[in-house]
Specification:
Blueprint (H helix, E strand, L loop, with lengths): L1 H20 L7 E2 L18 E6 L12 H11 L5 E5 L17 H13 L7 E4 L13 H16 L15 E6 L2 E5 L2 H5 L8 H4 L4 H14 L4 E5 L16 H5 L14 H12 L10 H14 L6 E4 L5 E6 L2 E6 L14 E5 L3 E7 L5 E9 L2 E9 L2
Parallel strand pairs: 2-3, 3-4, 6-7, 7-8, 8-10
Antiparallel strand pairs: 1-11, 2-12, 5-6, 9-10, 9-11, 12-13, 13-14
Helix pairs in contact: 3-4, 7-10
Bound molecules: fe (ii) ion.
């Protein structure tokens, strides 16, 4: 009797595992309210401005062979001057750009060179912001590596000041995109960094978290009535692992978090891993107390200005979340891919490589287009009018 029960249990587990492994991990998640997204069309005329969002590209395939960078370059080359691209941080994995004497320096420079090549013929504006990995993955050499990267990219790009905020300050740096839209760039790793970081008011204009929040509010007030983009590396809203969101399969197959082919059943380890990531210990995840303080401070400001568009990387996916009339766009899957969990407040999610374009039209409408990229090319996989 016991043996029959055992066999039945094993058969059940086997069927469940088979069911999991047949999941298409890259199937887009589209909220049921937007199932007919293809019939929602933006204005017929060309946009007056197009803003390309590319994040977490710090590990491209080398020497121009990376399909993502090839597709991004193709799209950028088709643009006129009324356009911009921003690289949303984690521009070099795993720990940023070391000093010139370091044996790893040349390899790391090459990672940036390959990304810079994507905009070598681009007529629009270019912006970069840092992520946690660019700050030595949050470790003690963070400030030096962050400054190394700013110097290298600006010297090599030949486009002037394009890395923001300057000098590893927190920002916000305000840059006009056109007459009616402005970009505010914040270095969110500055907030989370536990080692040396610039706190000199004469250099940065702000020296504390509170002053940074007040400066952000002041920039919003100065640009009231315009389309305001805020760009930073860390998400304020995410349905990915950095938000402590895990699908059931992560409890059974934790190695999928590191390699999407590793369907190795490790249920006990999986449970421990997911519990640890949800426990708010890790400073790079939104439930962490330092991170949460930042989210509350910034989101309070955003919600005073309906229609704000906040764009970030960090989670390796494409996502659109709209909450309290604020649009949150994640574009962090240039090099890596991580899961997205379906939630009622998630309009769109893709655990796949890609980038996002926000088009602004003359009537003031703004539409986000989500572009999926693979070895065969790029495809418009979702489009939505923003708040
Ligand atoms: Fe990150």
């Amino acid at each position: 009797m016991i043996n029959v029960l055992k066999i039945k249990c094993l058969a059940f587990v086997w069927i469940v595992l088979l069911g999991f492994s047949s999941c298409n991990l890259s199937k887009p998640i589209i909220h049921k309210q937007h199932a007919d997204w293809q019939s929602n069309m933006p204005p017929a005329e060309a946009p007056i401005f197009s803003f390309f969002l590319s994040g977490d590209g710090g590990e491209p395939l080398p020497d121009g062979t990376d399909p993502y960078l090839q597709e991004l370059k193709k799209s950028l080359n088709a643009q006129d001057t009324n356009s911009a691209v921003i690289f949303l941080g984690d521009n070099i994995y795993p720990s940023g750009l070391p000093s010139a004497a370091d044996p790893k320096r040349k390899t790391c420079e090459k990672v940036l060179d390959d990304q810079m090549h994507a905009y070598s013929d681009f007529k629009g504006k270019v912006f970069w912001v840092a992520g946690n990995h660019d700050w030595d993955d949050g470790h003690s050499e963070g400030l030096d590596k962050r400054l190394n990267q700013e110097r290298y990219i600006e010297a090599k790009s030949g486009r002037g000041n394009i890395y923001f905020p300057d000098s590893a300050c927190p920002g916000p740096s305000a840059i006009a995109l056109n007459d009616n839209s402005v970009l505010l760039v914040i270095d969110t790793q500055w907030w989370l960094h536990q080692y040396e970081k610039p706190k000199d008011k004469s250099l940065c204009g702000v020296s504390t978290e509170e002053e940074l929040t007040n400066a952000l509010r002041a920039e919003f007030s100065k640009h009231t009535g315009k389309t305001i983009f805020v760009a930073a590396h860390h998400p304020m809203e995410t349905c990915g692992p950095h938000g402590g969101k895990y699908p059931l399969r992560s409890h059974f197959f934790p190695l999928l978090e590191f390699n999407r082919k590793l369907w190795v059943p490790l249920p006990i380890l999986g449970g421990i891993y997911v519990f640890a990531r949800k426990s708010a210990k890790y400073i790079q995840d939104t439930p962490n107390k330092h991170y949460k303080r930042m989210r509350i401070a910034f989101q309070t400001v955003f919600e005073e200005y309906p229609g704000t568009v906040y764009v970030n990387g960090h989670d390796h996916s494409l996502q659109l979340i709209r909450k309290n009339k604020v649009n949150y766009i994640t574009s962090g899957s240039a090099s890596h891919i991580s899961h997205v969990v379906r939630k009622d407040y998630l309009d769109f999610g893709l655990a796949g490589n890609g980038f996002v374009v926000v088009n602004i039209y003359s009537n003031g409408e703004k539409w986000a287009e989500f572009i999926s990229v693979n070895a065969q090319g790029s495809t418009l996989i979702y489009r939505q009018k923003l708040d």
